[in-house]
Amino acid sequence: MKTNDGRLIVIGGASRSGKTAYVKKQVNIIRRICAWDPEAQWCELRGWRKITRRSELLAAMQTPGHVKLAYVAGGDLKAEFDFWAACVMHAGRYIAPITCIAEELADVTTPSKAPGNWGILLRRGLKRGITIYAISQRWSEADKTAVGNASEFVLFRQSSADDVAYMSRKTRVPADMLEGLETLQFVRFNADTREIEQSKLRF
Ligand SMILES: Nc1ncnc2c1ncn2[C@@H]1O[C@H](COP(=O)(O)OP(=O)(O)OP(=O)(O)O)[C@@H](O)[C@H]1O
Ligand SMILES: [Mg+2]
């Protein structure tokens, strides 16, 4: 049976370990995409449009065409993130399939169940054909809903022993495999097939 299921890819690793670079490569050919971009990185890429206001984000999401949007919000980041997640859910569900990227989730979520519209996006977005790249330096401090629903984990060098232990427990990727990673090296774990592979980013 053919389905239009999206995928949830959880990406973890210390600062400068390779997370953003990995996702950039993965989404290079994607034509309809929206990023939560607190560090204003995605908005600088060629072909991307920087969005700073809610009304602009909402309007840009109303058309089914090709679009690369980076939401660089100010003010209350948790509230803005919630609004961003609602927009992505709406765009994917009612307008056309979409891919989204959420950068540094430990800043806008906590280790408990994912909050509000982000929780809805994680729990219901995949079967609406929404693909989600969820990024954090420290998953032990970010929401457990993303980790629990992941289709795939991409794990770079971890920031702490806590994170090694946490990711290893959640995925059964051996802790010593994560301990041994150097910058740009990663372990990819497919949660459906339970396949583990190790590789390295090249530019
Ligand atoms: N196109 C490129 N060519 C060469 N090196 C690159 C390129 N893009 C990124 N890098 C290097 O790869 C490393 C990882 O960068 P990246 O931005 O992916 O880190 P990150 O894990 O997202 O970190 P943070 O959590 O701080 O956002 C950095 O040392 C960066 O300089
Ligand atoms: Mg990054």
Give an overview of the whole structure.
This protein has 203 residues and is α/β, with parallel strands linked by helices. The protein has a single domain, classed as P-loop containing nucleotide triphosphate hydrolases (Rossmann fold). It has seven helices and nine strands. A nine-stranded mixed β-sheet has the order 3-4-2-5-6-1-7-8-9, sandwiched between helices. Helix 3 packs parallel to helix 4. The protein starts with 7 loop residues before the first strand and ends with a strand. The model has no long low-confidence stretch (mean pLDDT 95). The structure holds adenosine-5'-triphosphate (ATP) and magnesium ion. The site of magnesium ion has 2 residues, from helix 1.
Short description:
This protein is an alpha/beta fold and 203 residues long.
Tell me, briefly, the overall form.
globular
The succession of helices and strands, N to C, reads EHEEHEHEHEHEHHEE
User: Architecture in CATH?
Assistant: 3-Layer(aba) Sandwich
Distance from first to last alpha carbon: 37 Å
* Structural Rg: 16 Å
Highlighted features:
203 residues, alpha/beta, Rossmann fold, 9-stranded mixed β-sheet, 9 strands, 21% strand, binds adenosine-5'-triphosphate, binds magnesium ion
